[in-house]
Recover the amino acids of this structure.
């Protein structure tokens, strides 16, 4: 599997739209389409952003190895958010816990 395919798989596994990823990276949706189709190379900064967004290491994206980000890397990403975004994530975590408890 090539880098473009791993990026697309990571995005679809997380059920993120191309539009959402484009907004996160600060590019147009067409850039994501081109990256995923292999028509555009990924810049180093974009690779870093994909890694953070998908919560996998850049090495995983480049090589295909499954190396999740460490807790420290996740925490660093969380602390870089503003208070509203952090609260939104905490609310989502609580919601997901509630759903799991209803299933179990």
């Amino acid at each position: 599997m090539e880098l473009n395919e791993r990026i697309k798989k990571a995005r679809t596994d997380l059920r993120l739209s191309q539009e959402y990823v484009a907004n996160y990276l600060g590019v147009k949706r067409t850039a994501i389409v081109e990256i995923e189709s292999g028509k555009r190379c990924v810049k180093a900064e974009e690779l870093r952003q994909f890694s953070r967004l998908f919560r996998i290491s850049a090495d995983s994206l480049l090589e295909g190895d499954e190396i999740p980000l460490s807790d420290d890397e996740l925490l660093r990403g969380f602390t870089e958010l503003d208070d509203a975004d952090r609260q939104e994530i905490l609310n989502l975590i609580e919601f997901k816990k509630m759903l799991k408890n209803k299933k179990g």
Remarks:
- Residues 70-104 form one domain.
- The chain has two domains: 1-69, 70-104.
